[in-house]
Design brief:
This protein has 263 residues and is α/β, with parallel strands linked by helices. It has a single domain (3-255), classed as 3-Layer(aba) Sandwich (Rossmann fold), CATH 3.40.50.720. It contains ten helices and nine strands.
Length: 263
């Protein structure tokens, strides 16, 4: 039975991954910045799955001490960490970069870049010591180098995550630690919806595109979890919204009634 640690997993795609890995028979350790959020996530998960397979610890992904404590919580409870997913991240309002407050920029950079760096450091050091393990970093808009107006800081942070992951793949080459990435595409989570709420016209203006390419957590998370468990080599790029899938959705969109935002 594998043990999976997921940062930022009290809601959104992270929580969806926690459910998916539990469904696949794994032990899961959830994490979030808020102790109350972690407690609530554990309560919800233990209502569905065996409590003995679930643990959690609050902590900031950008804090070395708190991520070290998260690793230790997993090892103390389950004996090892087989998979560590750096999922914790933040977005910002969809506005031009010069309209963002410096505090908003700093929060995104701190969570998305520094958080991924710190989580990677803790996971790789721990996995080197135990002799094995897999690290997956969560990609997002910007990871492929494409520019999206209004998402400059977030996209830059995810481009950095892509570059960091490439570097870690090379740096861990020849070791028993495997490094890869997960790419969920556009998913209906607070990460997508909260910035939209601050720019009410954005969804309606781009409704056709969002309906075409956005998916729900319960669709994407199980796929990512299955592929992560099946991965047997370093450098894995696990991508939900592949080019063939994008082309198919584009071609069939005139005949589709897709609306992932429908309650």
């Amino acid at each position: 039975m594998k043990t999976v640690v997921i940062t930022g997993s009290t809601r959104g795609i992270g929580y969806g991954l926690a459910e998916a890995f539990l469904e696949l028979g794994c032990n899961v350790v959830v994490n979030g910045r808020s102790p109350a959020g972690v407690e609530q996530a554990i309560k919800k998960l233990t209502a569905q799955y065996q409590p003995e397979r679930i643990s959690g610890r609050a902590g900031d992904a950008a804090s070395l001490g708190q991520m070290g404590a998260l690793w230790q919580t997993a090892v103390t409870r389950f004996g090892q960490v087989d998979i560590w997913v750096n999922n914790a991240g933040l977005n910002h309002p969809y506005v031009p970069m010069w309209e963002l407050e410096p505090e908003a920029m700093a929060k995104v950079v701190n969570a998305n870049i520094l958080g991924t760096m710190i989580g990677s450091k803790v996971a790789i050091q721990g996995m080197m010591a135990q002799g094995r393990g897999q690290l997956f970093n969560m990609e997002g808009a910007g990871s492929n180098g494409k520019v999206r107006p209004g998402m400059s800081v977030y996209s830059a942070s995810k481009a950095a995550v892509h570059l960091l992951s490439d570097a870690l793949i090379k740096e861990t080459e020849g070791t028993a630690v495997q490094v890869g990435t997960l790419s969920p595409g556009m998913v209906v989570t607070d990460l997508l919806l909260e910035p939209m709420a601050q720019n009410p016209g954005m969804l309606e203006k781009n409704r056709r595109i969002f309906n075409m390419f956005t998916d729900r957590v319960e669709t994407v998370a199980p796929f990512l979890a299955r592929q992560a468990l099946a991965s047997v080599k370093t450098g894995a790029r696990i991508k939900w919204l592949t080019t063939p899938k994008i082309l198919w959705r584009f071609l069939t969109s005139p005949f589709s009634n897709r609306d992932p935002f429908r309650s």
